């Protein structure tokens, strides 16, 4: 009986040792597969900041988003806020400033900026001018850079003559409108804060993680369901947003030269989450946030 017990103990010990060896070998292989993975680890040589903003003045804006004017950015209080914003951005010390206008406006913006620097042009309310031009002048920049781009709208959207009839024909009304209440609450809130708060506080919100999270949710709810299993109009519209912002990103990223650059991108806040994501995953760039200044 003692011999049997001894044999069992030896067998169990050998099995345990073999198991530990197998686990060790497996762990070693697991470590190796992660360790040897060819991720790009080069140190970022440039810095970038995407300043998300609401549009200060729709009458002179390059955006395709048109809503009623809300905040008076040139009120006595907000002029002080603009001064503070300019000073904060001077701490980032951008070497180039990118603005939300397509390249066809470049010559016009160059002419306006030259006149402004010479003291011969009064700045309109638009954030390009009130933030971009003012900051560029204080930093001694020669120009600002128009980096916007507008790809053609998705073909699937153009095929729809009547959205209501199209939605109902596919039985997608419920999915399409599933987040209407939340979106109306969101839009109402953004309208209300421009009446109740001052400029710097609103810009801090537009450049917060909270706002970025909500911006992402807009593109993954409601509209994205339009045309599923049919022409995918909603998903194509979401894809269009990525396409446009990827083009903007490429235009801004290619402003860099051999020397270290610090690119400031002044854009409508709805663009910020995509642009941040693209720059943050580009090895050449270190992403800096306005709220961290």
Describe the structure.
This protein has 293 residues and is of the alpha/beta class. The chain has one domain (46-293). The chain contains twelve helices and five strands. The chain has helices at residues 2-35, 76-92, 106-117, 127-139, 155-158, 163-170, 173-176, 180-196, 199-206, 209-219, 233-253, 272-280; strands at 46-53, 96-102, 145-148, 262-268, 285-288. A five-stranded parallel sheet has the order 3-2-4-1-5, sandwiched between helices. The longest helix is centred in the first third of the chain and has 34 residues, at 2-35.
Low-confidence stretches: 61-66
Alpha-beta classification: alpha/beta
Question: Whole-number radius of gyration?
Answer: 27 Å
The largest beta-sheet arranges its strands as: 3-2-4-1-5
What's the structural domain tally? 1
SS elements, strand count? 5
What portion of residues is helical?
A: 40-55%
Describe the global form. globular
Give the CA-CA distance, first to last residue: 78 Å
Q: Could you tell me the mean pLDDT?
A: 90
Q: What composes the largest sheet?
A: 5 strands, parallel
Short précis:
By secondary structure, this protein is of the alpha/beta class. It has helices at residues 2-35, 76-92, 106-117, 127-139, 155-158, 163-170, 173-176, 180-196, 199-206, 209-219, 233-253, 272-280, and strands spanning 46-53, 96-102, 145-148, 262-268, 285-288.
How would you summarize the topology of this molecule?
Elements: H1 2-35, E1 46-53, H2 76-92, E2 96-102, H3 106-117, H4 127-139, E3 145-148, H5 155-158, H6 163-170, H7 173-176, H8 180-196, H9 199-206, H10 209-219, H11 233-253, E4 262-268, H12 272-280, E5 285-288
Parallel strand pairs: 1-4, 1-5, 2-3, 2-4
Helix pairs in contact: 2-4, 11-12
């Amino acid at each position: 009986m003692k011999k049997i017990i001894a044999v069992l103990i030896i067998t169990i010990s050998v099995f345990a040792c073999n198991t530990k060896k197998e686990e060790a070998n497996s762990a070693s292989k697991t470590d190796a597969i992660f360790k040897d993975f060819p991720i790009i680890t080069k140190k970022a040589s440039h810095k970038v900041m995407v300043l998300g903003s609401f549009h200060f003045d729709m009458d002179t804006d390059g955006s395709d988003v048109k809503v009623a004017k809300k905040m008076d950015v040139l009120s006595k209080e907000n002029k002080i806020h603009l001064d503070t914003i300019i000073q904060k951005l001077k701490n980032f010390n951008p070497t180039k400033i990118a603005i939300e206008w397509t390249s066809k406006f470049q010559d016009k913006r160059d002419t306006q900026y030259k006149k402004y620097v010479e003291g011969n042009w009064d700045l309109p309310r638009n954030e390009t001018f009130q933030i971009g031009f003012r900051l560029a002048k204080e930093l001694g920049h020669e120009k600002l850079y128009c980096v916007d781009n507008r790809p053609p709208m998705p073909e699937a959207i153009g095929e729809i003559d009547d959205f209501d009839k199209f939605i109902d024909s596919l039985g997608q009304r419920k999915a399409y409108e599933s987040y209407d209440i939340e979106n109306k609450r969101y839009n109402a809130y953004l309208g209300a804060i421009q009446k109740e708060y001052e400029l710097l506080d609103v810009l801090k919100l537009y450049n917060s993680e909270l706002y970025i999270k909500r911006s992402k949710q807009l593109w993954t709810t409601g509209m994205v369901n339009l045309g599923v299993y049919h022409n995918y109009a909603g998903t194509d519209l979401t894809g269009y947003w990525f396409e446009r912002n990827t083009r903007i990103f490429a235009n801004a990223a290619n402003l860099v030269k051999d020397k270290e650059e610090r690119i400031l991108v002044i854009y409508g806040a709805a663009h910020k989450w995509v642009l941040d994501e693209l720059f943050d995953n580009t090895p050449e760039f270190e992403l800096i946030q306005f709220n961290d200044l």
